[in-house]
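User: Fold this; tokens only.

Assistant: Input:
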Amino acid sequence: MLGAVLGLAFGAAQLYLLLLGTGVLGRRGLRIGPLVAQFICPLAGLLLCALVRRAQLLPCAVAMSAVLIVGAVVCFVRSRARDSNRKKD
């Protein structure tokens, strides 16, 4: 259970940093800090899980992946819906 909670937390943090970083790059900004930090998130989460509960590494990794996949799909659908609403106007 602890592994899944850690995976959800670190997966959500990674998704947030990834969306923040791509948003900055999409606006032609030069801040790449969030993109670099999002690569460290899964390593930190899995390392923390390994130190606390080594047997929970698999649920931690699965939860991280699930958060990233579901979050990416939700953001994609939301973006497509906004684009279709703009075209209708």
